[in-house]
Amino acid sequence: MAADDTTGLRDLRAGVARRFAERAGMADAPLAELRDLQERLLLLDAAIARLPDAGRRRRRATWLALVAVAAVLSLAALIPVPSVPFSLDAEAGTVRLHLADRGTLGPQAVAGELRVDGYTALESPAADLLGRPGAQGAGRLVIGAARLNLRRISYPAGADIELATDAAAAIMTLHGQRGPVSVDIEWSGRAAIRFGQGGQVWQADYPFAERLRALAAAPVGTPPPMIVTLARPAQTGYSWTSLRPQAVRFVERRLDAGTEAGILSSLRKAHLVLQASAAEVTLGEGNDLELDGLELQRCDIVLGPVVRVKMAGTARSLLTRTGHFERSLKPSLLEYAARHKTVALLWSAALMLWGAVQWLQRLAGEGG
User: Fold this and answer.
1) Which of 208, 237, 266 is the last residue of a domain?
2) Model pLDDT for residues 279-301, shown as the tens digit of each residue
3) Which residue ranges run through the membrane (predicted)?
4) At 354, phi and psi to the nearest 5?
5) What's CA 270's distance to the chain center, in Å?
6) What is the value of pTM for the model shown?
7) Final residue of a domain: which of 213, 237, 261?
8) Beta strands 108-109 and 279-283, pairing class
9) Are residues 132 and 69 in the same domain?
10) What is the domain count for the chain?
């Protein structure tokens, strides 16, 4: 029975009780009338006693609502958002990129020598160059020239690129998992060229620009990694702005007394801003940072005294590690809802609308 029915029965009983009290005080009141009023009171009391307690029902409904809200909030606190927008400014000794799509690096003007290790074939219009002893089988090319340019490095889809720097050089290691990697070089003027580890240096003048392509390819299986080393005078660097990696890690292999010590963090420092939760995270040396499922609007990398990385976009996975402790930086749905300005505005508007509806209902009830 509804709450209105309960109120009606109680109002009816109050009226019958008043009538019984009035008639009972009158000497001329018929006994049959008094018995009739008394029986009505008993019947109304029995009917009201069988009704569910409205207050108890309201309390039960309130508790159920609280339990439902607590369950929803707990789930929202445990479930992370699918992807999170972020911006990153980091410095490291090494950065590893996984690139889902094919692309290129370059061009760069090289201030000094350029070295290529791991190639399996050379291509060039200069027949005398390709005919030099050891040119095709050495696997190492070192070239220095008055004007030397790295025109491009081409990599296939699914390639992994490791970018590192030291005191005198910028080093790029490229793994082409599903296709060849190629390096295109252009030079002119007085040049010194050497093939192999200890091969003879060949010097020549090139009044016009000459070109050469080094390729790392394999007829079957995965081609060998190609390493490109660019001389880097102090306080200079090489930069690229068109990279679109799918995953990024700041790790490097370190040696201890000639024995490989394993993969360690290469991060020097990093500042991460998570726009979804308005949070800022600062990381220092020794912290590991891993980003995956990236969709980037910007990715700038500079190989100078350190590797400088600036990127902005969204990520499906953002992880930090310190020792054996791992933490996800993605905010939960609850944190996102609590800090996102648009969501907060919608909640405020909904609460205001609910309050207005309740007020209008009370006015309507009082008017009736």
Assistant:
1) 237
2) 888 998 888 899 999 999 999 99
3) 61-81
4) -60, -45
5) 15
6) 0.69
7) 237
8) unpaired
9) no
10) 3
Are both 110 and 202 inside the same structural domain? yes
Closest CA to 187 of 157, 212, 162: 212
Distance between CA 86 and CA 297 in Å, rounded? 11
- The answer on 74 and 62 residing in a single domain is yes
Peptide bond into 107 cis (omega under 30): yes
- Residue 135, classed as helix, strand or coil, is coil
- Say whether both 356 and 312 belong to one domain: no
From 201, 174, 176, select the one nearest 190 (Cα to Cα): 201
Nearest of 101, 214, 109, 115 to residue 169 by alpha carbon: 115
Looking at the structure, do residues 37 and 75 belong to the same domain, yes or no? yes
Q: Nearest CA to 305 among 172, 170, 173?
A: 170
Q: For residues 103 and 157, what is the distance between their CA atoms, to the nearest angstrom?
A: 8
Which residues, 6 or more positions from 117, have their beta carbon under 8 angstroms from its beta carbon?
139, 140, 226, 227, 228, 229
Q: What amino acid is encoded at 68 in this protein?
A: A
Are residues 279 and 154 located together in one domain of the fold? no
Distances (CA, A) of 238 to 88, 146, 162, 172, 280: 19, 18, 14, 11, 29
Q: Are 340 and 76 in contact (CB under 8 A)?
A: no
**Which residues constitute the domain of residue 177?**
101-237
Burial of 334 (0-12, 13-18, 19+ CB in 10 A): middle
pLDDT of 72-125, one tens digit each? 555 554 555 667 889 999 999 999 999 999 999 989 999 889 999 988 888 888
